[in-house]
Design brief:
By secondary structure, the protein is an alpha/beta fold. It has helices spanning 10-21, 52-59, 69-72, 76-85, 109-123, 139-143, 145-150, 168-180, 199-210, 221-230, 235-247, 258-263, 270-276, and strands at 2-4, 26-30, 43-46, 64-67, 90-94, 127-133, 153-156, 162-163, 188-191, 197-198, 215-218. It has two domains: 2-133, Rossmann fold (3-Layer(aba) Sandwich); 139-165 and 194-257 and 264-281, NAD(P)-binding Rossmann-like Domain (Rossmann fold), CATH 3.40.50.720. Strand 5 (90-94), helix 5 and strand 6 (127-133) form a beta-alpha-beta unit.
Amino acid sequence: MILVTGATGNVGRQVVSLLLDTGAPVRALTRTPAAAELPAAAEVVGGDLARPQDRASALAGISSLFLNPAAIGSAAVPFLAVAREQGVRRVVLLSSASVEDGVAEQHGPIAVLHKRIEDAVEASGLEWTFIRPGEFAANALVQYGPQIRATGVVRGAYGEAAMAPIHERDIAAVAVRALLSDGHLGARYRLTGPESLTQYDKVRLIGEAIGREVRFQEAPPEEALKALVARGVPADSAEVLLGYQAAAVGREAPVSPAVQEITGRPGLTFAAWAADHADAFRA
């Protein structure tokens, strides 16, 4: 059986569904099972991996696991020790493209967090694969959604910043391949979407998906920082995000071929993602 942590998140839901499509048995772990709304074929269990008493029961009978850092926090080392004791063989970690290999020190809190968990997985003695996506297309739900629904105008900094946003279904598709086959052991996959897009491009494509004219309006970085913090983004993480955007102005975003190489199909476009989530942007 395969354990999916963070099973109600954007990526976790897709991992559960795609695994079930292959016929694999799935245990889906969530802190709120009553509200999970996951497929009936999944074994949905409640638990918080930060609590020692929940770890053994979640891992009983598990051979492989999909590990989301949001579900494990600072408990990675003891959780992985229990996983090994319980006979888990393989872990696929949802990491981040912000992690840099071959450097003495990671830059920014996002990279530091994910590198710490990568190191714990690598030291655990389990088989592992690290999946390192860049910008999630789903970030647009929080970054743009409220303003599009309210006014149709998105104010933000660095509208010309180019990223290659990835559909959560593509992240999940790669994770499923790594969970089910041996050809990905020890790999560190950097994942992106199939195209470089500015913020102007992304907002326009969302407008096309919902059949409404929407636009991006440039704002000073100071205003954008305050808006991110007001939405609950920690100040240091908000500063890192704006730093990434500032560095991405005036250049094409690198596009990784990994999704197509691993899944055998082209990565899903942002336009496809916007169409899949159009209702979330409608007032």
